[in-house]
Amino acid sequence: MKEIFFNYARFDNNKSEVITNEADQIITRFKIIFEEIYGRINGAENLSDLIFMDITDLEDGQMITSSIIDEIKHCSAMFSFFSPTYFQREFCYEEWKTFNSYKEKHRQKRKILIPIEVSPVSEINENAFPEGKKWFEELVTANGLHRNITAFDMRDKDTDNLCKKIEKLVKNINNQIRINKGILENKEFSSNILIIEKKLKGSIEVPEIKKQIAEESSKLKYNSKPVCIIYTGGTIGMIKDGASDDLHADYLIAEHVNDIVTPLRTKLSSLPFNMHFFGMEPTIDSSNIKIQDWYKLGKIIEEQIQNYQGFVILHGTNTLAYSSSMLSFLLNDFLTVPVIFTGSEVPLTMPNSDAEHNILNAIRAAAHDSHNGPMLVPEVTVFWNTKLFRGNRVTKKYASDRTNSFHSPNMPRPIGTLSQDKLNVDSSLVYRRRSLYAYENSRRDSLVKLDAKISILLIHPEMDINFLKASEKDVDGLILLSYGPGNSPDHKEFTQLIKEILERGTIVVNVTQCPYGKVELKLFETSAVLFDLGVIDAGDMTLEAAYCKLLWALSKKKDNRKLNRTIESIKNNFQRNVAGEMSVSIHTLKIGSSDKFHKNEEIQWLISDTVIFEKKFNPYDIVDVFLRIEHIELEVNKELDEEKFLVLFGAPDKIPKDSTKSSKLLASFKKRIEKNSYDDKQIFNKNLEVTHIFRKCFRNEDFELSFCNLSESDFCFNSLQLIVYTRESIIDNI
């Protein structure tokens, strides 16, 4: 983004074919002179970031482009080259209006408007534009500095007088740019880097660290909040052992964060904000990460969230996706700033390392409150190569690849992409959380102390059930890595094992082994069998996110977590989209068995108790709705070829045969009678998709479901459940 925006009518910069004693392309000439004087005064050779001058010939009625709006938003000053033609151009007015709008909304940026006279203007048609009078008065009747360059100066072929006035303007603009960048008075040559000598063991609030920050922060270059960088270890900080040779290279993990800062100091010093660098005690290979390390990182961020504009965690790649997922849940209740993980596949000190690029751009991505900073993304994210991923949707794609090690397979695209040295954030993907509006709420939960025990079971052919029985006894949560859309063996030995595990109070979660896609109840009966047992779906969560979310959800309920009501609460919370970790939330409504339904003898319907749906949401946020009926036991009437069943939304007002075309008919299905069977009963399960009708009937109010058999044959069922999948388009009311 450029520091100065040229707001001008393109016609005023054309070559003159009539007045031969005046300079041609006077605005381009002004730009060339301004850049030459600015470069000489500031000792700058590269002025590519100084002036934005769009030469596109816009016509009235055309919208100014988003790139122009971005330049106006981030510039320190706008030079408005006014003339009679200028005051007739709609796009000149829109650019001025946009500048003033950002100037009023973001007063801390201290933008300045500089009117420059190209041709004298005595009056304009003030009614041509909504704020025409204000526009004219702000530019034409301005005094002092604003009027020191006149039309005569601009058009005179002798540039001596113009150069003197531009030199004065450059000195004033220099001050404006420095103020806008946050450079403190008399500190232009101060450092913007503070390396904390004492390593972190769990808190910044220790006397030695507090003393160093208090003494040295005032000496730093900028007055905005700094970015906090925490080095934890990993490949990014590996240093070649002095005893190594070219054929046998051994590496040690750098023990102090200074080893990271030293090779980057020159480039870090050019960033327009302050940075505090911390090292963790001890530094670790990420393969050795423990839940205590996650809690320690979360506690530091919770403690310091008001003191920094963002946090960057330098981390090993092996468990980076686990750590970023875990912190997304730990910090979810109060996160209002960016927390960005990054690492590298090649050590920083090695040739062709990806570490320098990842570190510098992760730090820049966190500095949203700095001069020309990126859009605020108040999430835990992962920056890798050119992509900013959501931390709880990312997983490692390649064992070792500098460009594509990580991806987020079940998100349509990354949250942000680095292009032409700018992080472009897709605002539609940024997760809107309650904490942005309610940080001061004293009722928020404290950081969860992680203490649950989770095990992961890979479903594979010929599993040893006896070994599983012995190994899964003492866990609080079990993750099943299942085939495809949630399938697993359906033989009695395996299902009995899962049933026993569930009966011990263990939460069991179904996660697909596939990187793309999700667990889907609707596709196969084998996945529905797990659902019937009480196994909950992880939807399209990654393994890392599911593991960390289950650990977090169980740890929140450490007291009495084996009680039935606590288990149901944990299950319900796990299936809600908490921090953007899944595409949809899953709401399971257990309506009950047939003996819980009330029979209306007059019109032959089974009617449920009132279903209370506590979650409020827009019906258009409903993605899918399924009706799962387990263990339907039908008394066989062998005079019939088939039996037909109806499910109605709400209470019935007609007998079954008159309800087959009801607008409230949620579902209908048939069961073919097996006449060759000697059994008097047939037992079956049913999955029914009912999305369209449910969305049409649901009104965020309590409701009933009604169930019947048209032939009036006796039947019963073990459970009827409604599974509603919703996207979270808006935050809850506070």
Structure explained in plain terms:
- The protein is an alpha/beta fold.
- The chain folds into four domains: 178 residues, Toll/interleukin-1 receptor homology (TIR) domain (Rossmann fold); 246 residues, Rossmann fold; 129 residues, Rossmann fold (3-Layer(aba) Sandwich), CATH 3.40.50; 137 residues, Jelly Rolls.
- The protein has 19 helices and 30 strands.
- The strands form seven sheets. A nine-stranded mixed sheet has the order 5-9-6-10-11-12-13-16-17, with helices on both faces. Strands 23-24-29-26-27 form a five-stranded antiparallel sheet. Strands 2-1-3-4 form a four-stranded parallel sheet, sandwiched between helices.
- A hairpin with a 2-residue loop joins strand 16 and strand 17.
- Helix 1 crosses helix 6, helix 2 packs across helix 3 and helix 11 runs parallel beside helix 17.
- The C terminus is likely disordered.
Summarize the structure.
The protein is α/β, with parallel strands linked by helices and 734 residues long. The chain has 4 domains: 4-181, Toll/interleukin-1 receptor homology (TIR) domain (Rossmann fold, 3-Layer(aba) Sandwich), CATH 3.40.50.10140; 193-438, 3-Layer(aba) Sandwich (Rossmann fold); 454-582, Rossmann fold (3-Layer(aba) Sandwich); 590-726, Jelly Rolls.
Give the neighbour order of strands across the main sheet: 5-9-6-10-11-12-13-16-17
Distance from N terminus to C terminus (CA atoms, Å) equals 37 Å
Structural class estimated from helices and strands: alpha/beta
**Poorly predicted sequence stretches spanning 5 or more consecutive residues:** 434-443, 730-734
* Share in β-strands: 15-25%
Q: In CATH, what is the class of the largest domain?
A: Alpha Beta
Helix content: 25-40%
CATH topology of the largest domain: Rossmann fold
Average residue-wise pLDDT: 86
What is the tally of helical segments?
19
CATH architecture field of the largest domain: 3-Layer(aba) Sandwich
CATH homologous superfamily title of the largest domain: L-asparaginase, N-terminal domain
